[in-house]
Write a structure and sequence with these properties.
Number of domains: 3
CATH architecture of the largest domain: 2-Layer Sandwich
CATH class of the largest domain: Alpha Beta
Number of strands: 5
Strand content: 5-15%
CATH topology of the largest domain: Alpha-Beta Plaits
Radius of gyration: 28 Å
Helix content: 40-55%
Order of helices and strands: HHHHHHHHEEHEEHE
Largest sheet: 5 strands, antiparallel
Distance between the termini: 81 Å
Length: about 240
């Protein structure tokens, strides 16, 4: 392949002309010298290959700073494959954390959409209410933590005095009543309700902001009490006492 103008180099590399100029400003590639006859700058096949490398590294999640380090490694005679592998492993962990974060955001949005009335005045909008800085759900999204699994057994034993739990009359179902702290409006109660009722094995959920309680009927063979407590606490609320 012969030397190309910037437009043809961009086409060959699968990027825009402005992307190449941006790479030049960031020092990722060297800008070719302008010919003395005032013609167009020409990009060599090696430079086009470098642009392709940068683009492909970006596509799998590497930042421009990290790509610059990879490019330096390619020219470092002391570097070996293990160095690049460590960077790839670190990037994979970062991607996994982002996936967890996106899943939590998706779950939070599903819960908010499920309880939004979709009509009426904005003062009744549960989505806007949840975006307030002091809302438990928003505070929890600042902490990188996936949706909860069941709580540890030790913690569950400590909670026994705070939970009213008795066998339901029909079909082996159980009812559970939790005293919840941190709710400041009906929107908070609706958020908890939407999260819990999506859990397999939960038959009914009733959450009262006024009483500060969450009552639920569930199948203990499908979902554990610990998991239900964890779901209530996940948006940032806290189970603090029991109700008869």
């Amino acid at each position: 392949m012969k030397d190309l103008t910037i437009a043809k180099a961009a086409h060959e590399a699968g990027v825009g002309v402005e992307t190449i100029r941006f790479y030049e400003r960031r020092g990722l590639i060297e800008q070719p010298r302008k010919p003395r006859d005032s013609g167009f700058r020409l990009y060599s096949p090696a430079l086009v290959k470098r642009i392709k490398f940068i683009r492909q590294a970006q596509q799998i999640g590497f930042s421009l700073h990290e790509i610059q380090e990879l490019l330096l490694l390619r020219t470092d005679p002391a570097a070996d494959c293990s160095t690049v592998r460590r960077q790839a492993v670190a990037k994979l962990e970062e991607v996994r954390l982002k996936i967890h974060q996106l899943r939590r955001i998706g779950t939070a949005l599903e819960a908010l959409i499920a309880v939004c009335p979709g009509r009426g005045g904005l003062q009744a909008c549960t989505i806007l209410d949840a975006l307030e800085p002091d809302h438990g759900l928003v505070r929890q999204l600042d902490v990188e933590r996936p949706l909860p699994a069941a709580q540890p057994k030790r913690r569950a034993r400590n909670r026994k005095r705070d939970i009213t739990n008795h066998q339901h009359e029909e079909g082996g179902m159980k009812s559970l009543t939790l005293k919840v702290r941190g709710m400041h409006c009906d929107g908070c109660a609706n958020t908890i309700k939407a999260l819990v009722e999506r859990e397999p094995g939960v038959k009914t959920v009733s959450v009262s902001f006024v009483d500060g309680e969450a009552r639920m009927l569930y199948d203990p063979a499908t979902v554990s009490e610990d998991k239900l407590v964890a779901l209530v606490e996940w948006p940032g609320y806290r189970v603090t006492g029991h109700s008869s």
